[in-house]
Amino acid sequence: MSPRSKEQHDQVRRERMDQIRRAFSEVYLEKGVQGTDIGEVAKRAGVSRTLIYYYFKDKMELIQGMFQEYFDAAKEFVTGCLLTAESPLIRLERYARFYLETAVTKPRRVYLYRNMINDMPIVFGGQSQDYYHSFLDSVHGPLVRTIEEGIAAGQLAEVEPVLLAQTYMGGVTGAMLELAKRQVTADEGHVLVEQAVSLIFRGIVKGTV
């Protein structure tokens, strides 16, 4: 058998990391930081403990690595969603819809990120504030910039940009958590998402506040 090419090796690694990531999220959501066990993660991922130790030297490095992977994915989404040449309203609506629809279709992901934010002090210790502020800057920076562009374009209410961004984000987060705890059909979820988007934008669009 010929050795794997670099592309094949990278593909296998991505697939294994996806398995580990999904298994970690299940165990972490059920048992928290203290209860998360490498053996349990390996079992649910369908891989050996040895394989996980190949990627992570111990339990805490696994948890820190998984936290970082999820945070990096969030940063990448925010950048791709908000830092475009489209109208600020289009970007902001796409951003809100993504999170609200995720709350309906993948509620566990909402709880995953919420718990990760809350557990940062446990996972990163003395570096937790640095990680937290770095994450906020990478997520809220593009949002504030989009809000500023919307105000300058006359699309959004002429309110201090950071305050308007926090008001918008508060509406998205609140609606997201409410939708995540409900068990609704796809049709019911669609109606609720539309209602939430309408309410959120009623509060930030120029002429409505």
Automatic annotation (TrEMBL):
Residues 37-56 bind DNA. Residues 14-74 form the HTH tetR-type domain. It holds the Pfam family TetR_N. InterPro entries: Homeodomain-like_sf (IPR009057), HTH-type_TetR-like_transc_reg (IPR050109), HTH_TetR (IPR001647), Tet_transcr_reg_TetR-rel_C_sf (IPR036271). Keywords: DNA-binding. It comes from the Bacteria. The keyword Nucleotidyltransferase does not apply. The keyword Ligase does not apply. PANTHER family: HTH-TYPE TRANSCRIPTIONAL REGULATOR RUTR (PTHR30055). This is TetR/AcrR family transcriptional regulator. It comes from Paenibacillus terricola.
